[in-house]
Specification:
The chain is of the alpha+beta class. Helix content is about 55%, strand content about 20%. The protein has 20 helices and 21 strands. The strands form four sheets. Strands 10, 11, 12, 13, 14, 15 and 16 form a seven-stranded mixed beta sheet that branches. Strand 5 and strand 6 form a beta hairpin. The radius of gyration is 68 Å and the shape is rod-shaped.
């Protein structure tokens, strides 16, 4: 209850309490004095009775006072009245009327009191008797009447005050309710305004969200179509409203699937996520991710579907591009790992070949050319050469050897290879050449470019044993940033394209993914090493070029290679003409190699041609021998891959002992970076294992000549 009402009620109670107390106090005082007045009055009456009786009793006539006394008893409503004579003998006794039931009740309750009054009867100053009366003080009746009136008065006042309080309380309640209603109206207006703003904001979000917001009714018709939907699908709101997706968005082949999806959505409560291809207004295909939620009313009945659509076409394309780039990266890393493995084993393998080839060459120098053993030895030497060639392919694959790059016209190289192919490929294969007339120059190694074309042409020939068409074409092209972003190894800008295609059986995707792997081949055992395309891949990598293969079963195979073009053409530097060199000599050679068989073969080759030789199996031993014989040693032929201090530290130590020391590096594996490092340390020449006897002798004479020119 409002505090004002409580105070009001408390004030009314206080007023009523004060009135009651005052009324009871006044009533009590009135009752007290009124009762005394009544008693005094009765005493006066009794005296009058005594006087009247004394006059009547003088004659001792009892009938005279009896009549009077009866009137007095009746008039004053005495219980009884008794006259005694002077000897206290009853002279006359009169009983009054009996008490009523109410008077008996009041007497029992003590509300009425009885009094015994006695008054002497005198005559001429002499007491002749006395009169006794017993009366009931009936002052209670006016008291009760007054009290009843007082109660009525107080009740009236209480009712009046209560009415006033009720009026005030009602007014306050009306005011409070009015204020509350005003507050409720204000709050309702605020809530309505908030709902209006929320609806406005929601509408703004719906209209400006990048997600297409579409609502469908029970008939699968569009009842909501926001701006994003217009942007994604091209249809305006007016064009879309009331249409079904079958009329606007769904390709023919997916309509049945969408019908099944609609039934599924209408029979469940949860959302459904779906990725679909959709049509735009201009009939383009877009990939969209849909989130479909059934709409239910308050009774739980299905009334439609709310859909959110996100255009993920670019994301799907990016994911596909990323997948392709990852595959390219994995392929590149795999080829790099295989190349490193090839480079690692080539040194030991070449050392073994050096032993076989060296001893075979020494035996051929002493063998009769007409004997059967001579042809056998030549067969062994040819096998060693093929094995050495296999190692060279592995090194090319590993990109550990430096290519002799220079300005090159690719058309000239294709023309030269065409001549070779005409004599090596069967006539049932038709070779078609299509060369661009004005082709850009590329920076390439002509020998390796020839190896690329020959290897791929031979592969095409082997893929078409019953005949077919081999096409080789060149063209100028320009690769843009988008193409290079999808093909990491391609170079943006002007490029020269070399395309080699056949109409053979083609390859499936599983084979296509492995064609550049070393030792992978689909040919029967003994018909291929699986290094042809791997070598091509390594050469292309070393040229900074990019190769792409397109093939499918029954549709042939097409290889496209993009070589970065050089803007300015430069003339290829003329190769120095070879000079005839005397193979023999009388110099002293220090041979350093950890393989005993290599040391012995080199020593025997050089010794038979007049050289003096010293042998060392490690760099540490070579330093000791050279320090003791540096005035007589003319050249040091040494390996780089040796245990202990190794080749590089050995060169450094030898140069420290003698800055003019002549060093020829002979190694089964000399990566490009190793060649550069050895040259910087002071090496004068390089020869790869397994070397031919004549090549070792020529390289030795040439290195000695270079060293003498440098010294002078």
């Amino acid at each position: 209850m409002h505090p004002f009402h409580t105070k009001k009620r408390l004030s009314i109670k206080a007023i009523m309490g004060l009135l009651v107390v005052l009324s009871l106090t006044v009533f009590s005082l009135f009752a007290f004095f009124y009762q005394r007045h009544v008693i005094a009055y009765q005493i006066d009456q009794l005296k009058n009775h005594a006087t009247v009786v004394s006059t009547s009793l003088w004659s001792y006539e009892s009938q005279a006072p009896k009549a009077y006394l009866m009137l007095a008893v009746k008039a004053n409503r005495y219980e009884h009245a008794t006259i005694f004579d002077e000897q206290d003998q009853v002279f006359l006794h009169i009983d009054g009327e009996p008490y009523t039931q109410i008077e008996n009740l009041f007497l029992a309750l003590g509300l009425l009191r009885t009094y015994q009054l006695k008054e002497p009867i005198t005559f001429n100053g002499t007491t002749i008797g006395h009169i006794n009366v017993k009366l009931v003080c009936r002052s209670i009746y006016p008291f009760l009447y007054i009290l009843f009136c007082l109660l009525l008065f107080l009740t009236a006042i209480w009712l009046f005050l209560t009415v006033l309080d009720a009026k005030a309380m009602l007014e306050q309640r009306v005011l409070a309710r009015t204020a509350k209603l005003e507050q409720e109206v204000h709050e309702r207006k605020k809530a309505e305004e908030k709902l209006r703003l929320q609806a406005q904001h929601l509408s703004m979000h719906v209209q400006h969200t990048p997600l297409a917001v579409i609502e469908w009714n029970l008939d699968f018709q569009i009842v909501e179509w926001n701006k994003a939907a217009e942007v994604i699908f091209g249809f305006s709101r007016d064009e879309a409203m009331g249409k079904t997706p079958f009329e606007l968005l769904v390709p023919e082949e997916e309509k049945e699937q969408l019908s099944i999806l609609w039934k599924k959505i209408s029979n469940q409560k949860g959302s459904i996520r779906q990725i679909n291809t959709n049509l735009t207004k201009d009939k383009k295909i877009k990939t969209c991710e849909w989130f479909n939620t059934p709409l239910l009313n308050s009774q739980g009945d299905f009334v439609g579907v709310a859909s959110l659509a996100l255009d993920i076409t670019d994301r799907i394309k990016a994911e596909q591009t990323n997948k392709m780039l990852r595959e390219q990266l994995l392929q590149s890393q795999k080829m790099e790992a295989i190349g490193n493995l090839a480079g690692g084993i080539s040194h030991d393998f070449n050392n073994l070949l050096q032993g076989i080839s060296g001893y075979t060459q020494l035996m051929l120098t002493t063998c009769d050319p007409t004997s059967k053993n001579y042809s056998h030895l030549q067969g062994i030497l040819q096998a060693c050469e093929r094995a050495a060639d296999l190692i060279r392919q592995l090194l090319t694959l590993s990109r550990k050897v430096e290519s002799a790059l220079g300005p090159l016209n690719l058309n000239e190289q294709v023309t030269q290879v065409r001549t070779i192919l005409d004599h090596t490929i069967p006539k049932m294969i038709d070779i078609k050449i299509d060369l661009a007339p004005t082709l850009h120059t590329i920076n390439a190694d002509p020998i390796q470019i020839e190896q690329i074309i020959l290897n791929m042409a031979i592969n095409a020939h082997q893929a078409m044993p019953d005949g077919g068409t081999l096409s080789i074409s060149t063209a100028n092209t320009c690769l843009d940033a988008a193409f290079c972003a999808k093909h990491l190894q391609a170079t943006q800008g002007p490029n020269v394209m070399l395309k080699i295609a056949d109409n053979g059986p083609g390859m499936d995707q599983a084979i296509l993914e492995r064609i550049f792997e070393p030792f992978f081949t689909t040919k029967e055992v003994g018909q291929g090493t699986g290094l042809g395309l791997s070598t091509v891949y390594g050469i292309i990598q070393s040229h900074g070029a990019y190769i792409q293969c397109v093939s499918s079963p029954g549709k042939g195979t097409e290889f496209t290679i993009y070589f970065p073009a050089i803007v300015r053409q430069h003339e290829r530097p003329k190769q120095p003409q070879k000079e005839d060199v005397d193979l023999g000599g009388d110099e002293t050679v220090l041979i350093v190699d950890d393989e005993a068989i290599v040391r012995e073969i080199a020593a025997e080759i050089l010794t038979t041609h007049g050289y003096a030789t010293l042998l060392a199996e490690s760099g540490e031993e070579a330093i000791r021998i050279y320090a003791a014989n540096k005035n007589t040693i003319d050249i040091v032929i040494m390996d780089l891959n040796m245990p202990g201090m190794g080749g590089f530290n050995s060169i450094r130590k030898l140069k420290a002992l003698d800055p003019n020391v002549c060093i020829l590096v002979a190694s089964g594996y000399i990566p490009t970076e190793s060649v550069k490092r050895a040259t910087e340390l002071g090496a004068d020449g390089f020869i790869s294992k397994p070397f031919q006897m004549i090549n070792l002798l020529k390289k030795t004479r040439k290195t000695l000549a270079i060293a003498k020119q440098t010294t002078t």
